[in-house]
Amino acid sequence: MLKTAASSIQVIDRVTTLLDAIAARPEPSSLKFLSAETHLHPSTAFRILKALTGHGLVERTANGQYTLGVKLLHFGSRVHGKVDLLREAKPIMEWLRSQVGESVNLTVREGDEVVYVERAIPNRMMRVEQVIGSRAPLHVTAVGKLFLSEDGEKACREYARRTGLPRYTPNTFTQVTKLWAQIENAHKLGYALDNEEAEQGVACVGVPLHDPHGKMVAGLSISAPRDRRREAWIPIIKKAGADISARLGYLAKSA
To answer: Which of 4, 85, 146, 224 is the most exposed, fewest CB within 10 Å of its CB?
Structure first.
């Protein structure tokens, strides 16, 4: 067993070494060059390259040379997309905070929850502050409702069956029919509200953020004590959400 484990790790090391060698050159590389560069026997290098080619991680040109595969580009774009989201959202979040004077949150979806990944908080004593990395169920948050709206009514009902729609405050929607009515309306309006549904005394307004393909990849929200939330924030946060989506590459459809 120890020999098998060691062998598996050695294979990963060899794969990484070959990929590094291919990536180091702007032009395709020959088997002879890669074998010399990685100190691998040509037959060993060939077997690994053949397997990598079969998985789309490496491509072999017509004259038998090797380049990085399209699948690696796909992996890279997914990582790059996450970095882009935080980088592109932060200055607009700070602008939004300066406009409304309240806490601004950036959230993504993980399963049946939203996760807070970034925030911009105001310099005031009484404020709502979400901890980065904290989570909340979809049905009690403004952004969570927007994520549910993306999936449609059937998926929303499945979510309700799966989770049981636990109650967090007297305002939490625990009946799927009423919840879906709120979600459907939010989808039409382009924003959603949390009216003390996750925490008493706290209200939020949220908007979706879209990637170049129109998929909702995150949400932007303003959290404040209930008596300080204003309807006037809606056009401001919608503009902020549209600006972030545009910076992520989303082209909104014209009316």
So the answer is: 4
